[in-house]
Design goal:
Oligomer: heterodimer
Strand content of chain B: 35-45%
CATH topology of the largest domain in chain B: Immunoglobulin-like
Structural class of chain B: mainly beta
Structural class of chain A: mainly beta
Number of helices of chain B: 0
Radius of gyration of chain A: 14 Å
Shape of chain A: globular
Shape of chain B: elongated
Distance between the termini of chain B: 56 Å
Number of domains of chain A: 1
Largest interface: A-B, 37 and 36 residues
Order of helices and strands of chain A: EEEEEEEEEEEEEE
Helix content of chain A: under 10%
Largest sheet of chain B: 4 strands, antiparallel
Number of helices of chain A: 0
Helix content of chain B: under 10%
Radius of gyration of chain B: 19 Å
Order of helices and strands of chain B: EEEEEEEEEEEEEEEEEEE
């Protein structure tokens, strides 16, 4: 099982029309994200993040060997924590679902807590056909699909995470 | 974890509660090690529109039995996976039952948990004694005022029509009476 270490670089690539309020660089993420932020190198949260991205991931990891440190901060989506997932998506389409952190086909990615990923109308964390993903120490809560959803791939290490009140009547996926 | 090709992963020491399901492995997942996790209260005890009480379990394994390893997980309900860290239990509240002077019978509530069983029965006096209650892997039932001193309750696993013999006794419980003031 791979255990990943952050490398020295904190540069970040940004794709699409990205608006970040309250942060100077993508490597240190905080404030509001209104279009999908794609990170290609090691990054970390420098404050709480509010996502207003509709119909797409909030943070997408677009390269292998990337470590995202949550540093004890919270990433919050647009779902109503008091049970309004019925207003969320009715279909699950990778790439157009509102999840907190997404990666597709990437190897050796690590997402480290402590930190919270909450209130997304999709999964909190979504991995599709990736390999050797590590998710550790992360709390996922009140997401309308799974807290952590892993589809495909091998040698993942999902450990020491807490999942609370994820899933919904339409998507009774589960905490993990 | 979803789908064919989601193989050879480690899910370890996670905690999940109040979710639609605690852990959900879809069909086709193989070779995953599910170890030392705590999955309880799934679906949520405190329900809402997104978390109804009538669906979901702590571990929902839709993959073939034996394709993934479940070791030492704490859970109360599961499909196709053991909750090995929690054994069956049968309890009464109150026990002992406080009774007034001159009374020889009491009333209590019997609760059971049998994580690895799907259908259970509670019998009186012996494994095939009078039927007191029937239900799923978790439940409770209140007696009438007919419980004598020393009555033994038997929790029987009757999943798949298992016979009412001691081989399928999951737990026993002796209920005592106690005169008030003692």
């Amino acid at each position: 099982m791979n255990r990943l270490r952050a490398s020295s670089s904190f540069a970040c690539a940004v794709l699409g029309f990205l608006l970040i309020v309250g942060t100077a660089t993508a490597a240190k993420i905080s404030g509001t994200i209104s279009a999908t932020m794609t990170i290609n190198e090691d990054s970390q949260l420098a404050g709480d993040v509010t996502c207003t991205v509709t119909g797409a991931p909030c943070i997408s990891i677009g390269a292998p060997n990337v470590t995202l440190e949550l540093n004890g901060f919270t990433i919050t989506g647009q779902a109503d924590p008091q049970g309004a997932c019925s207003a969320g998506p009715t279909t699950f389409v990778v790439g157009s679902v509102e999840d907190g952190i997404e990666l597709q086909g990437q190897a050796n990615v690590a997402i480290h807590g402590p930190g919270i990923v909450q209130q997304f109308r999709g999964p909190g964390i979504l991995s599709v056909n990736s390999g050797s993903l590590t998710v550790t120490g992360v709390t996922t809560a009140n997401n309308c699909m799974s807290g952590i959803l892993v589809g495909g791939g091998s040698s993942h290490n999902i450990s020491d995470n807490v999942s609370i009140r994820n899933g919904s009547r339409s998507f009774a996926c589960g905490g993990i | 974890m979803e789908g064919t090709g989601t193989n050879n992963n480690v899910i370890e020491e996670n905690t999940a509660f109040g979710n639609s399901n605690g852990l959900y492995l879809t069909a086709g997942t193989q070779g995953n090690i599910i170890h030392a996790n705590t999955f309880t209260g799934n679906p949520a005890v405190q329900t809402d529109v997104d978390h109804p009480s009538d669906s979901g379990v702590d571990i929902l394994n839709a993959a073939n039995a034996g394709d993934n390893a479940f070791v030492g997980n704490v859970c109360m309900t599961s499909v196709n996976a053991p909750c090995s860290a929690l054994g069956p239990s049968l309890t009464a509240s109150p026990n002992p039952i406080q009774i007034a002077g001159g009374t020889i019978l009491g009333q209590t509530t019997i609760s059971w948990s049998a994580p690895d069983a799907q259908v259970v029965e509670v019998h009186l006096g012996s494994p095939n004694g009078p039927l007191f209650a029937q239900g799923g892997s978790r439940g409770s039932a209140k007696t009438g005022t007919w419980v004598p001193e020393g009555l033994t309750f038997y929790l029987q696993d009757v999943t798949g029509g298992s016979p009412l013999t001691s081989d399928y006794t999951l737990a026993t419980l002796v209920v005592h009476l106690q005169p008030a003031g003692n």
